[in-house]
């Protein structure tokens, strides 16, 4: 595979190679199928795979391939768990039926019928005579739907027996295929259409997927197999991933106990034939109830001039080869779901005027196996299909994230390598230094042939072998700029056998006629990771049996003498480096660049850059002035220096009148604090998003009341990156808020809003509980171009919003799935956030907006549908909402983690308490008793902190303090004990310079909170004291007599520590001047709030060589207890 790379995009070349590979693989599939049918039990799978991988597919007869594809697509056998009819669309007459259909659909229940009321079933029968009138009406309605599958399943009842069936309808050329599946007696029949009801079955699984953090494909796949395992009840569920060369890998797996794991096994591409993959792209879910059940024939009208294809039927019988495979692995039933993702590039074949769609590819399959017959009702299969669509969106996101990280790493490595080349005349640095060429792409070794010398890294051929490869390249590929291959043996290199498995794949980039850069890869099998136990070495595999283990053996044979294939992005990186090297070193005598010339070029570039920057700046100013969203700006003093036409229109204040005025004079009094805070933070470089405030109106606009804006702040900076002002990009929410307020107040009088022609009413549409469009207001008509009577009573998901045949076309399948999730979340009563939403209106215009969905509740509190509000939002506001949503999700995850820690920490604390109680019952001396008492107080303090459920109560000074009698001495001892370990680690002495009166003082108050405060301030003092320093505690107290025996004590504690002191930033956080404090800052802030609750406060005094926290608090005195107190 030569790597002489043309100027075309790598994606188009990749597409061509993939198409060629599919054709070649289909030929192999056809040959294997023919051999299986011919040899039966004597078919040797492993040997056949090896033989056909080595053969030339060009020599296979095209007639055999065509016959094979027709055999796959036009088989006339179905599984016996249901029956099938093919109906003429115009007459509703039967033109094909399964052999079991007459018995299933016309059998009479509990009575022997007369001839007159027992309809017969055969070719030409009017299908309407077989079912009840409502069932017939439902089937006839399906005929008028372009996307008939949106109505699946259709609940029908037989006229003779009254038995219910799910009719699953799909359209093929000139007829409708209807599969009839039984409804279990224990199953509640589905009466609503399609995904709306099926979604409820998969709601939990979908929520689980959507709550996963990004960045781990393994976690995503493991979660989906777990959810499918729970949802369907199969014995084994696997996520089966296709690699670029079409071979498969079990990427995630979950099984019932006792089953042999297949996790990590790789399989040849022939295990899933290309024809089967094509069918999976069309029919996303495939169920086999019992692989041992005898299939049922389908009879077709012999007068038809064509063969009807039944490959889209849910009942289609499996191929005999696949049945043999299932039997060999002891699997009786299976359920397979396709995972279809975006290819990554747009479809170039889209018709003019149509929006380009991204190509689709089969990423893999989620495969379920069961050791006994198993039937999964269609609604649950539909739910699984919907779950796979959501899963595919997340797979796409993971791929995009991986690509971004990979491109970032490659670009970083390329930049560093290029920098090395600029600093040195020879390319040796990219081999000898770090990073090197091995960091550019994934490889096992690399080598540089330069000026007839060789430098090697990692696993490479010997020097003589590298010279031999270079000679072979010059002789056999003299016209190319290099070569990339996953197999030197297949590429025709004569010495490939001598290299063995150590070096199989190679990418070579020619720098000059004699200088070449090489990358090498070892045998593919070295990259394979096993999951689960391998076979016992004494057990012999029967390669003739089609089984997962023999498939793995066949895969290892196929990839013998082969490395991992080189991806397009890797070849792009290699080609880029090759161009850089060629530009830097044209021949072996090339020297270093002329420094003066380089400086001149850089100077010219800077001048050009300044001119371009000035042009861009002027264009940005023009765009801001003419923007359709309100934009304003202020300088560092808060004076307006920017005021575009939109904000002038909304407020009635012209540009000339606004410039130079203080922004705070232009906003409503209720918004002054919010604007002050926003300005303060923005000038510090902290840009707030999605802040709502109100602006005053002027002149004729005063009667309309204030303008409500949702604003994002953006700090304006000069060329030295200093903040010189603030720009506010806003969104006018006045009309939207009016409607939402009115909507809330009326409580159910929906028509008053929806049918109101006022231009202030935003676009609104709705659906009933069955998914039919039930509301479409005037604003929605204006926005979409579709009249109300054209969309009412159509399926909201599919007919109104959907694919190319829908009224309002969505961007792609992912957009349809996301809309389905949002609407169904609201339908199930979940709270929904504003979601970015876009569609193509009747005029072909792309509409971007925000969608908010609210449930519609009936008089009995039951959800009867949904209302959807559209708000045409600026791009900046949409970004702000996304940031806000991510922040809320992060906060929720932290709360969950905190709740888990709070819960789990209580058991160990109970164990500590029990151990302490046991020690208290033993003979202890006075000092040991004191230590145990200190431990008890620390234990109580931790319990109190764990009970702080709401930090806001502390922040708002709403916490209730507990009043107990305690000794000040005990509080100090307990607080000091909490910092002894960190202080000893730094060699810091803790000095308690406390008077005898203080040590014996007994008071009333919240001892645990005071203990918490002292411990936190002591810890901060220790942390910011130098090694070998000291922390000193002093105290003074003043008593005010309130009565004969009651005194108010004013207690002052000083915690003095050596060193330069606590950083100003941390002190600022302690006083609440930072909206995002650190852990230490939050701790100090809480302590200060607690002190304020005790009528106290804290100050910080900084001196040359020492600093001090000065803590003041008020306590009530208590009668002194007699006894001696131990010294600290």
From TrEMBL:
Biological processes per GO annotation: detection of visible light; protein-tetrapyrrole linkage; red, far-red light phototransduction; regulation of DNA-templated transcription
Span of domain Histidine kinase: 900-1117
Keyword terms: Chromophore, Photoreceptor protein, Receptor, Repeat, Sensory transduction, Transcription, Transcription regulation
Phytochrome chromophore attachment site domain: residues covered: 216-389
Keyword set includes Secreted: no
Domain PAS: 616-686, 746-801
Function: Regulatory photoreceptor which exists in two forms that are reversibly interconvertible by light: the Pr form that absorbs maximally in the red region of the spectrum and the Pfr form that absorbs maximally in the far-red region. Photoconversion of Pr to Pfr induces an array of morphogenic responses, whereas reconversion of Pfr to Pr cancels the induction of those responses. Pfr controls the expression of a number of nuclear genes including those encoding the small subunit of ribulose-bisphosphate carboxylase, chlorophyll A/B binding protein, protochlorophyllide reductase, rRNA, etc.
Name of the protein this chain belongs to: Phytochrome
Organismal lineage: Eukaryota, Viridiplantae, Streptophyta, Embryophyta, Tracheophyta
Gene: LOC103695585
